[in-house]
Design goal:
Strand 5 (121-129), helix 4 and strand 6 (152-157) form a beta-alpha-beta unit. Strands 1-3-4-2-5-6-7 form a 7-stranded mixed beta sheet, sandwiched between helices. It has one domain: Rossmann fold (3-Layer(aba) Sandwich). It is an alpha/beta fold and 211 residues long. Helix 1 crosses helix 6 (199-210). It contains 6 helices and 7 strands, in the order H-E-E-H-E-E-H-E-H-E-H-E-H. It has helices spanning 5-16, 49-57, 101-117, 136-148, 164-180, 199-210; strands at residues 19-25, 38-43, 75-80, 86-90, 121-129, 152-157, 189-190. The structure holds guanosine-5'-triphosphate and magnesium ion. The site of guanosine-5'-triphosphate has 24 residues, from helix 2.
């Protein structure tokens, strides 16, 4: 996680500025015109996508979070900066077994089609629960992104929930896998929305992706 202090500070300033919910798209017909660069949050249900978006922007209830997996059911777009600098996209989760099958399918197709087909998408952040490491359901997304050559970066979430030694092991294993995957950034980020661990670096990583 090596970012220059200047990059961290510039990112902090950007995220401390205006951030506004733009719109919620239940299907791809409703997504905004691709006029500005985007970074999207992907990952399993309940991994902490919406919480991380809130932590990044320092706004507790910008994106809706919940204990119950399957909270986010649409693509949610957030405008950063005024004038508009870039957009963040919060997405429904993968692999939520308890949701009705056709809804799970619908979300998966929508998320996949969005990630594969969005010119302005500069990078996907693929969130991985630090307690579990990369699971097969995560590998499905990673493979899809590798095949479509969509640049992505893995981000471990909920780092506060495990011991430092376990965190070191899962970090090492995740980095090893990232280095083997063609579209993956070779470095990962380790975060906690609860403690703020890795949040300044994640802000800098978003800015780096936007370019
Ligand atoms: N301890 C801890 N809990 C977290 C962290 N991030 C998220 N959570 C909790 O995990 C649960 C799920 O968080 P969300 O942000 O709603 O997860 P999501 O990935 O957006 O879930 P879906 O929208 O259902 O796909 C909530 O109860 C959060 O409070 C974290 O860093 N640490
Ligand atoms: Mg969510």
């Amino acid at each position: 996680m090596s970012f220059e202090p200047e990059a961290i500070e510039a990112a902090r300033k950007t995220f401390a500025g205006p951030v506004a919910f733009l719109k919620s798209a239940p299907t791809l017909e409703f997504i905004p015109e691709p006029t500005v660069n985007e970074v999207a949050f992907a990952g399993r249900s309940n991994v902490g996508k919406s919480s991380l978006l809130n932590a990044l922007t320092g706004r507790n209830s910008l994106a809706r979070t919940s204990n119950t997996p399957g909270r986010t059911q649409e693509l949610n777009f957030f405008d950063v900066g005024n004038p508009l600098a870039f957009r963040l996209v919060d997405m429904p989760g993968y692999g939520f077994a308890k949701a009705p099958k056709d809804m799970v399918r619908k979300w998966r197709f929508m998320v996949n089609d969005f990630l594969r087909g969005r010119d302005v998408l500069k990078r996907a952040l693929v969130l991985i629960d630090a307690r579990h490491g990369i699971k097969d359901v995560d590998r499905d997304i990673l493979e899809m992104l590798d095949k479509a050559a969509v640049s992505y970066r893995m981000v471990l979430t909920k780092a506060d929930k495990i011991k430092a030694t376990e965190l070191a092991d899962v970090t090492e294993a995740t980095v090893a896998e990232a280095r083997k995957r063609p579209a993956a950034h070779p470095e990962i980020l380790v975060t906690s929305s609860e403690t703020g661990l890795g949040i300044p670096e994640l802000r800098a990583a978003v800015m780096e992706a936007i370019g």
